[in-house]
Specification:
The chain is an alpha/beta fold. 54% of the residues lie in helices and 13% in strands. It has 6 helices and 3 strands, in the order H-H-H-H-E-H-E-H-E. The protein has a 3-stranded parallel β-sheet with strand order 2-1-3. Helix 5 links the parallel strand 1 and strand 2. Helix 1 packs across helix 2, helix 1 crosses helix 3 and helix 2 crosses helix 3.
């Protein structure tokens, strides 16, 4: 089972708030305290829960891409270039193939909206 922010806080003997401040680097934290937290993060191999983080930040770091098909080599090439650039900005993609069907395209877009993607790119 993956370690939690609570586990890191216990091991470092600090509050959850302090762990959050160290991980997000958004408030000053005493140097020794920061070192203890980072050591606990490393020992526990802690990785922040992206779903929990997105609830707080209202940002998923996911961009939806809708394509009419993947059999035409033009579209995979475009998607690959988009993904490469999005990765540089720490985004991942959610790819939807509508097979050239407009009602399927609408379903995919609605699904992406329900999953709170940060943006949608529609390739037509």
């Amino acid at each position: 089972m993956p370690s939690t922010i609570n586990d890191v806080a216990k091991l470092a003997n600090v509050s959850i708030t302090t762990v959050s401040r160290v991980i997000n680097d958004n408030y000053p934290v005493n140097r020794e305290t920061k070192a203890r937290v980072l050591k606990a993060v490393e020992e526990l191999n802690y990785k922040p829960n992206m779903m929990a983080r997105s609830l707080i930040t209202k940002k998923t770091s996911v961009i939806g891409i809708v394509v009419p098909g993947l059999t035409n080599l033009f579209f995979p090439t475009i998607v690959e270039a988009i993904e490469k650039n999005l990765k540089k900005a720490c985004y991942t993609i959610f790819l939807g193939n509508c097979y050239g069907n407009s009602s399927e395209e609408i379903k995919i877009i609605e699904d992406m909206n329900q999953r709170s993607v940060d943006g949608i790119i529609i390739i037509d």
